Amino acid sequence: MSAIIGTARTRADAAAKATGQAVYTADLAFERAASGVVLRSPHPFARIRAIDVARAQGMPGVVAVVFSGNTPRKPFDFSIKDQHLFPQEYVRYKGEPVAAVAAETEAQAHAAAAAIDVKYEALEPVMTIDDALRDGAQLVHPRWKAYEKSATRFMRGNVCGRNRIRRGDVEKAFERAHVVIDSSFELSHGIPGYVEPRSAAARKEPDGGLTVWCGSQSPYGNREELAEFFDLDVERVRFVNQFVGGAFGGKILMAVEWFVAALALNCERTVRMIWSRHEDGLHVFPRHGGRASFRTGAAQDGTLLGMRASFAFDTGAYLGYGSGTALIATMLASAPYRIPALDLEAKLVYTHKQVAGPVRAPGGPEATYCKELHIDEVARALSVDPLELRLKNAWVDGDESPTGQKLTSVSARETLQKSAAAIGWGEKLPPNRGRGLSCSWWFSSCGRSEAKVEVRSDGSVHVVSGNPEIGTGSAAGALPILVADHLGIDPSQVRLTLADTATRTYDGGVHGSTATFSAGQAVEAAALDVRRQLLASAEESLEARVDDIELSGGFARVRGFPDHAVAFANLAEAAGGTITGEGGAREIEDPEFDPELVQSHDFAAWMAPSFTTSAAEVDVDPQTGCVKVLKIVTAQDAGFAINPTGVVGQIEGGAVQGLGYGLTEELQFDESGIVNTGLKDYLLPTAVDAPAIEAIIVESPSSEGPHGMKGVGEPPVTTPAGAIGNAIRDAVGAVPHKTPMTPERVWRAINAI
Hints:
By secondary structure, the chain is an alpha+beta fold. It has 3 domains: 32-123 and 196-245 and 251-282, Aldehyde oxidase/xanthine dehydrogenase, a/b hammerhead (Aldehyde Oxidoreductase, domain 3), CATH 3.90.1170; 289-445 and 592-751, Aldehyde oxidase/xanthine dehydrogenase, molybdopterin binding domain (Aldehyde Oxidoreductase, domain 4); 447-584, Aldehyde Oxidoreductase, domain 4 (2-Layer Sandwich), CATH 3.30.365. It is built from 18 helices and 29 strands. The protein has a 7-stranded mixed sheet with strand order 3-5-1-12-9-10-11, sandwiched between helices. Strands 8-13-14-15-7-24 form a 6-stranded mixed sheet. A 4-stranded mixed sheet has the order 16-25-26-29, sandwiched between helices. Helix 9 links the parallel strand 14 (304-316) and strand 15.
């Protein structure tokens, strides 16, 4: 066992954040920077008859005005090319940007934006999935047939995505089942909930390039998108990432970055834009809302025989990154349970709402909430203990996923048993108190990542990685540990340079539980390269064999003779000032699956899957429907915990975020569009609302991840809401099938018994 890897450590950015020294994008100062603002549509759906910017361009202080008439008209390059930087013919949601202005002061920019004359023809919007899918429905995209799309993308009317997993004969399974249970659910939209609203700055450079300062989850990917869109040389576009005040998937897609770039390219000034919470809310990429239905047949002994599940997700006005939610939902709908006959389907539906995005674990809380409440209903119908039903049917090594992937390192049963034991499963409870379980699986990802590790002539050790630190600690908490372990130093001595594209250390970004999985491999490879060079140099300097030399405390020492040593600083100076190691994440092939079992499914095999179970204990007031969550336990398979402190932090954060999804958070819309764009009337849980949380780390090593690790960041948010819902039913005999489970909804469910 390594002396450092696998031990609990404080993350590298903790002191700066705790003392207020961390610099976020809005903190940056620029000389003579212009202020940018966005003009947004007041309508959820309208035809643009004309835009006149002449008056705005002539107003005091104005340095640039951009709109559809002077920016590239090509669509964004998603799997359906349905969206432009500024709308060409229709606005499709309330708050959609139609123009942007940069001026000497923010007040001048707002005045000029107000002077832009946009003539709208208001149209009847489509605000619900039911309205979008009914016969003769208004089309969110009247010209959808002309859109370019990828070969696997299903599109018809207001449906912009569909995938399916089918195996066995579901109808025959239902015919021979002892019970067949039906459940249906409604799912709310929810915001990513980061503390820091979006902000960015951009400057046109003399060489024709562009520099962008921002807080992105994917600076290299964003740079490529922006360069391609504006026809810039990607090597002349630089993204400089700052500390990121939370992201949760909401900062994968660019937002304010597009508009400062467009404005900066049209003037000779640095342009900065800082959105208010309200503006950020108008442009938020929310978690998908929607609906789901489940039908499951089971034998009298509790064996699950067949399941049919269907999801319809509201993806808003444009596709964006919405396809992942539907793909993931079908992979979660029956997992992690052995069910021989399956028919699992999900589709994406356009409406006139904000563009839904890849919020932390897209599709995970939604699908797991539905599936786990449904599994409890099967158990109740059979008079079987919900834990026993899950243990009886849970996957083990050698089982197959819904798509035919052979599974290894399966820990579903262990997470179930440990979380149940920690919550006191089976122990007697007072009236109106209940316990519930929720179990699921998740994937790990490995993408392109590059890193450098440098030992400099002053003896300092520097890590250069393209991986951004977005608040999770995946970079600040794990990367120094991997380097320190191989160089024999304390992690606190490792200095980080992260996510500046000028360093030419490409990284795919933080998403899909890939950050430490990919960047960790790259950084560790670079550290091993530096170690090799240090030992080779020390061999000559100390006149000793490499096998007899160890690295510790910034020195290369001969084993058994600690005074016979040479400092890293001297070795680096002898090498010309710096010893640099380089590394990259290795390519890992996706697991095999059976393509005959899927239709239009681009994510049917999951690398290094992990397993997670949450257990909850709640107290419910049947007179008011008020739910008090007393404790949440989450047992999560991390494969191997490189930094247990970081894993516990992710589990605890996931518990609170899952609590919000289950009980309080709801993005609301009416016939005129979005209603609650701020945090005053969007109820994020706070420290006051957090229950007792117990994090249990399970380690079932993968064959793909560094040191056997698995992705950690997304799984713990997927399971708490289902556990809370099942605990509510255990307490009072009923639970709403709609998120969030507000006091009114709980009260109505109780009174409907």
